[in-house]
Amino acid sequence: MNTSTILLLLVSILIAASVSFYHYIYKVKSKSKVTLLLAFLRFFSVLGLLVLLINPIISRRTIETIKTPLPIVIDNSASIADLKANKIALELFEKLKENTALSDKFDLQTYQFDTDFSPSDTIDFKGKQSNIDVVAKSLKEIYKNQSFPTILLSDGNQTSGEDYVFGFTPANKVYPLVVGDTITYLDLKITQLNVNKYAFHKNKFPVEVFLNYAGTKAINASFKITQGNTLLTEQTVAFSPTKKSATISILLPADRVGLQILKATISSKAQEKNTYNNTKNFAVEVIDQKTEVALIADFAHPDLGAIKRSIETNVQRKVTILKPNEIKLLTDYNVLILYQPTVAFKSIFEQNAKAKINTWIITGNDTDFNFLNQNQNSFTFKSSGQKEDYLASFDSQFNLFALDNIGFEQFPPLENPFGTITTQGNINTLLSSSIRNIATNQPLLTFTENQGVRGAYLFGENIWKWRAENYVNKKNFTDFDIFLDKTIQYLASNNARKSMVVTHERFYNSGEGIEITAQYFNKNYELDEKARLTIAVTNTKTKQVKNFDLLRTTNAFQANLDGLAAGNYKFTVKELNSNSVYSSSFEVLDFDIEKQFVNADWNKLNQLANQTHGRAYLPSKVGILVKQLLEDESYKAIQKTIVKKSPLIDWIWLLVLLVLSLAAEWFIRKYNGML
């Protein structure tokens, strides 16, 4: 409160006293208690009005103590119970949570994690997977720009997510409390098994297996792969204290068409504490059909290698790069890719007029557009001959097949001669073009279908740059390869479009996400957003039926069937308005990833502690951990002085008192006949 305000308040007191004195004391013959009360009320009323007119600012100071947050995070995955550490883990968690010394110094916050990170509401140690990395990411979000320690109660065995050792902020100390047996037992384990989902009939398919050994003596183990009661392969693998891992590569015959369920097993004569991780089931679908793609070009270009590698990531595809004069019989191929056609392609177009093979035409700076105008009737090209860069723009309404936007707008531009493209039939555009972010309203990648013959057109060269850009952004080619694979898949089929298209895997591992995606098209082959899709899933053994609604996504409908037990399932997707039906089956393989561990990973948790300048502890040392946290001077409570300023006119109770004072004065004067 400044000096001028204080002076005004003093003047107000003087004025209020003068008014009260003049009305009730000056020249008043008899002074009674009533007169003095009226004088006080008049003084209070006048002073209150003057103070409200002055409206001084009242400051209030409060001191707030802010403690350092201390998140206590417990592992809620099933591996804790499998290691028989659930009881001690819960006891430690409760002991830390109720420690009064810690709560006096820190702001204790309790959390749990398995697949996801959440408050510690229901700790039951039934989580299907362990993702310690999600703890690091979640704590960064919750405590942004804060320095704090973390107590992590876990066995250190992670089954999903990125490497957690480097996920935590190095400046924030992590104190792992390692629960579970840390003694190294003899254990043979199939760490990973790699196999293609598909194999071709009468061919051989590769299986790659990674084996691990924990123990202190040399042993010989037997590794075998079986199918039912049939032994497919068996070999001996030697392990020792210095050789703790082995990689086995095997070629197995694909003798029978259909889904083949196989089992890989490693065993020895030595007794193991945990044999669950000695077995891994896997499946391969053997098919007797392969898509042959002819990539025809009259000159070399980086696009050719990129397209071939991308398409052949799907083992069902084989791409042969040919020159136009090297084609002997078009019917040897399922799809033709004509790269920058010129007059040299004349015989190809003439043969295909009879063969009617689905074709993908890619144009560029060396394309003969006059020749192309004469040999196809979907587009008319008017080219200026001047080169131009065309950027891509994804059309979310595209509905020939399900495809997400993989970042087409950020890809490098494709080169094509500048000009106009006029459509002459029904087209379905996936990518439209723009020049320096100005839309041309012309297609860049589009699809046609005429009398059952399908076609695709890409108006630009240098698509190899898209694949390279995809790798720069994602560190893999997966998204781009899926994009090209779906393009070839569409062209490889001559069947008329179905009203319902359902996408699913033939097999899943238990504990993994099980998603089934469906698209429903109306009579105009437009994606029907008002469709009502349901799915009925039946366990073929128990006959138990579960019904779900498929939920709308961006360009499809989706059902999440997580939690299904291992077994064979049949399912039916039905559109309720039209009664369209799709039926198929899948199998959930018996695989519980949380049961593969025999002890806690002390080394990994200790590495995490060292990385963050913390320290790992065993349950018996929890008292030392508490003592260290209490003695750590870097975590001190901070006192903040909070000044709250409010004008006096906001004080409602003062207005109330002022009204009561005026009313009381009037009532007393009225009662005593002074009015």
How would you describe what is shown here?
The protein is extended. The chain has 14 helices and 33 strands. Strands 16-15-17-18-23-22-21-19-20 form a nine-stranded mixed beta sheet, with helices on one face. The model has no long low-confidence stretch (mean pLDDT 87). Helix content is 25%, strand content 37%. By secondary structure, it is an alpha/beta fold.
How many β-strand stretches? 33
Number of helices: 14
Overall outline: extended
Q: What Rg do the Cα atoms give? A: 39 Å
Largest sheet: 9 strands, mixed
Give me the side-by-side strand order of the main sheet.
Answer: 16-15-17-18-23-22-21-19-20
Helical amount among residues, as a percent range?
A: 25-40%
N→C terminal distance: 40 Å
Low-confidence parts lasting 5 or more residues at pLDDT below 50? none
Gist?
Helices cover 25% and strands 37% of the residues. By secondary structure, it is an alpha/beta fold.
Key traits:
675 residues; alpha/beta; nine-stranded mixed β-sheet; 37% strand; five-stranded mixed β-sheet; extended; 33 strands
Question: Secondary-structure map with pairings?
Answer:
Layout: H1 3-24, H2 33-54, E1 57-66, E2 68-75, H3 78-82, H4 86-97, H5 100-105, E3 106-113, E4 117-119, H6 133-142, E5 150-154, E6 174-178, E7 187-195, E8 198-200, E9 204-214, E10 219-227, E11 230-239, E12 245-253, E13 258-267, E14 279-287, E15 291-297, H7 302-311, E16 317-322, E17 335-339, H8 346-355, E18 359-363, H9 369-375, E19 379-394, E20 414-423, E21 427-435, E22 438-450, E23 453-459, H10 464-474, H11 478-492, E24 500-503, E25 507-509, E26 515-520, E27 533-539, E28 545-549, E29 551-552, E30 557-560, E31 567-575, E32 580-589, H12 602-611, H13 622-631, E33 638-647, H14 652-671
Parallel strand pairs: 2-3, 2-5, 5-6, 8-14, 15-16, 15-17, 17-18, 18-23, 25-32
Antiparallel strand pairs: 1-33, 3-4, 7-9, 9-12, 10-11, 10-13, 13-14, 19-20, 19-21, 21-22, 22-23, 24-26, 26-30, 27-28, 27-31, 29-30, 31-32
Helix pairs in contact: 1-2, 2-14, 10-11
